[in-house]
Amino acid sequence: MGSRYSRFPKQNDAYQFYLACQNGETATVESMLSHLTYKEINQQHENGRTPLHAACCYGNKKVVELLLERGADRTIENHYKLTAFEESKANREIRDAFKRPETDVTRFVEFAGTFSTTYNHDDHTRDVLSMY
């Protein structure tokens, strides 16, 4: 039985893109974003991480911003059932990159129609979940 995650061939653009995101190679990421498909931008590595997960884990804020601007999927979970946002919980600068412009609210749409909103007030975080 095969893995549900892609095994990137070493020469594959998606693999090179994942590495560029992980390593904070902003110029390479910018260049590659122009010709990668949505599927390639969100392709999961064997560890379940997407390029967005990799950029978040390694603290590459500019890459995170570029990926989010291009519409990277914020809801994909890795093997540990963590989204990229959840993996970046120790890095406030990365978490701030997930905020919508001109607001203090971060929004996620999760499975089964659940809507999750994180409010940040006075350095306290509170998650609110509701059904559609």
From TrEMBL:
Family matches, as Gene3D superfamilies: Ankyrin repeat-containing domain
UniProt protein name: Uncharacterized protein
An example Gene Ontology biological process: protein K6-linked ubiquitination
UniProt-recorded Gene Ontology molecular function terms: ubiquitin-protein transferase activity
A GO CC term assigned to this protein in UniProt: BRCA1-BARD1 complex
A matching Pfam family: Ank_2
Keyword Repeat carried by entry: yes
InterPro entries reported in the protein's UniProt record: Ankyrin_rpt (IPR002110), Ankyrin_rpt-contain_sf (IPR036770)
Superkingdom assignment: Eukaryota
Residue ranges of ANK repeats: 47-79
Repeat is among the record's keywords: yes
UniProt cross-references to PROSITE patterns, sorted A to Z: ANK_REP_REGION, ANK_REPEAT
UniProt keyword terms in alphabetical order: ANK repeat, Repeat
